[in-house]
Amino acid sequence: MGASQYVRFFEDMGIEDVSIVGGKNASLGEMFQKLSGEGVRVPHGFAITADGYRHMLDQSGAWERLHAELDDIDPDDVVALTRKAKRAREIVYGAGLPDDMTTEILEAYRKLQQEYGEDVSLAVRSSATAEDLPTASFAGQQDSYLNIKGDESLLDTCRRCFASLFTDRAIHYRIDQGFDHFKVRLSIGVMKMVRSDISSSGVMFSLDTESGFRDVVFVTGAYGLGENIVQGAVDPDEYYVHKPTYAAGHRTVLRRLLGDKAVKMILVDGETKNTTRNIPTPKADRARFCLTDADVLELAGYACAIEQHYGRPMDMEWAKDGIDGKLYIVQARPETVTSQRSATALESYVLEGNGEVLAEGRSVGERIASGSVKRIGNLTQLAEFKPGQVLVADTTTPDWEPVMKTAAAIITNRGGRTCHASIIARELGIPAVVGTGDATTTVPDGATVTVSCAEGDSGRVYQGALDFHVDRTEVGDVARPRTKIMLNLGNPDLAFKTSFLPNDGVGLARMEFIISEYIRVHPLALLHPDKVDDPDARREMERLTQGYVDGSAFFVERLSEGIGTIAAAFWPKPVVVRMSDFKTNEYASLLGGAGFEPTESNPMLGFRGASRYAHPAYAEGFALECLAMHRVRDDMGLTNVVIMLPFVRRVAEADLVLKTMADLGLRRGENGLEVYAMCEIPNNVILIDQFAKRFDGFSIGSNDLTQLTLGVDRDSEIVAFDYDERDDGVKEMIRLAVEGCRRNGIHSGLCGQAPSDYPEMAEFLVRIGIDSMSLNPDTVLRTTRQVLELEDQLVPTS
Q: Is 309 a catalytic residue?
């Protein structure tokens, strides 16, 4: 075949040819030419150039007739516009394809038939370009024709495609944008049709679209043709892959979310052209992921190669062929929204008005929100709660979390800054006022209130909707203090966003949030579903574990995905993950949990932490936690995870748990594994030299250490006045612990609430020379600046 005048194959064009073949074709050519060798699969095809469009109209002398229709068009006269557009399309379609062009198109079609087989079906897409502005994008302005077969059908489709330059919508768009109809030209792309109508398709990005986090590939997918995802007509499956560990050879999906995928777009054979329509997705298909892990990882590899080639974050469309079973990239363009946003701005809330205070308690979350009050007295009322309402309750339990997630704010009678409601509110990024004593009587049901936690220690509930504003601070480059400033983080959904704060890693990643939110079922109930008596709980368990081999696979995968997401967000900085530290009452409130837990009158001092792991009553549950940690470190390759054991009461207990972990594949020192312990029991301080031989570091839990040093139940509001982390005795305990760590050459940190709440505690920790402190994200900047100033005073720089 001689050199073509009007046809160019993908391998003969690239991104610099936009003016000749339009944006879509140029992008496909660029990838086909430069990335096929790296294994990125792009369907082969060819473009009919913009010169071909001109040649066709020249040959038939159509220009004059087009001018007659379009020169004095009035965009506001809809009837006339429709009439003239129809005439323009008839002129272009009627021009017919010149013989030399027809020959070239059919020769190119033969080439695709040789490559893909006689009955290859084609996708024919238009790609418009403007002469004086070759970069202009006319996305979505022209039509696509799918599943085209045979010479006559292809030639007819090309004529229709050229004519589509004059649809009502395209004409209107050009007038609005100030483009001259006669300077816009059309190129056509003809390529192997990827039969995703009988498989799946989707969109992927080489960054996280919510936070702008760059170290992941974000893949979305649904069944059928890709139009639904692009338009947002369907709730797709979502997957993340971590780029640095992928590059190092690890092949694991970081996390996934099952989408509803209610409809799928299929092809319907029409009289003149194939049309599409949405049909309901079969129930069994909706309940499973539309891609295998191998598919997701293959796509992630494509995304990395494409991003590397273009040197910037990319937005790509993929399709899976239901006939050959292969994955193809059908479009790639630069991502232009999230990657342009500044992720260095931080927010602080400021109340402008004031009003009558209906209730007052401890503030959590440094934010302000307004909404109408919904009082919840018991579990049965949760169904009445509407998103955006302010939840008012005596106290909250893990059962309530699905509703808490949708609340504008939370107010409780009971609890302190470390209670369930506080922890959840902090993780969800909503304000909470806890321990008000009487909010369920003083805050009227249905009233509009403003919940303010932006005024220091005291949280206030004001009558009415008060004005407030949010100050944004640019983080910029804050110098790193010598004392490591780490973060407390339990919610994987906030991990990518939070990673932009200046930090030295995560000092406390709590497993409890992931278990109560992502798993929701008691581990032993998952292992022994036959022992769960409640039929409702069993039904819900079956629904949650659908698509997993069994309950234990569900637990291990969900837990490892949650932890893996936090570890990936801060990679390669250390992420200290504390094994589960639920109390028995909290464990019992998980689905199916009641039958596996004893009833204790003071769970805070009962069956929790290390004693639980080594006990036959929970050994199987601990084994699942260890399997999940092993998967994160060994399969996912996230070796920045440090394991931390809570509530290690005795040295013998430490030995027993460490041996159990080693038997389960988590041997301290192997594959760089470090194991820390919480220092939260006076015995940990008293016997620190013995504990230090068994662990790589101690993280001081000031909440429990205060409780056990002062003998105050931290959940009791009656003696809350006696609970103070700043007590001299507590500070002496902390000092002894830090000294003991230094003496033994192991890491000392503090992950309790104190330095986040009290600047003077942060100062005390710097003065005694602690290695790290772990803070709530909302206090990181303030405390970092304070620590930098202090360190300058303590060690004057020469």
A: no
